[in-house]
Amino acid sequence: MDAILAVVADPNVPDERVGGLIRGGKVGWERILGAHATAPPRLPRDHGLLAALDGSYGYLRQVTPHVLEAVRFAGGTAATELLAAVDILRELNATGARKVPARRGAVGVRSGQIHHVLMHVEIDAEHEGDR
User: What's the pTM value of the predicted model, to 2 decimals?
Assistant: First the structure.
């Protein structure tokens, strides 16, 4: 990929010629495809965070209620919905409930955020024996 960078960063190569030089003589499709074939697989959109959390689920299940009981989170307006989801999680831990109450389920947090916050509720059934 250094060869591509050399072409792209060369101030003597006009912009309209960069693609042709990369695909053609300077680098070539074979090198590009070879580099792509040996590249490590891309991480999922969450960068592997949920898989890592799932792997540590037993530990998280033990400490999360204590952290949420001891720490109060705050944030700006952009964090309002996320903080509401944290409050739901705090309530679930305090009451021992296993499902998000219907009245609170439409908290408005984007699915990616609520999944991070409430993932233990979704995975709980898978880890029934962890308690």
Answer: 0.41
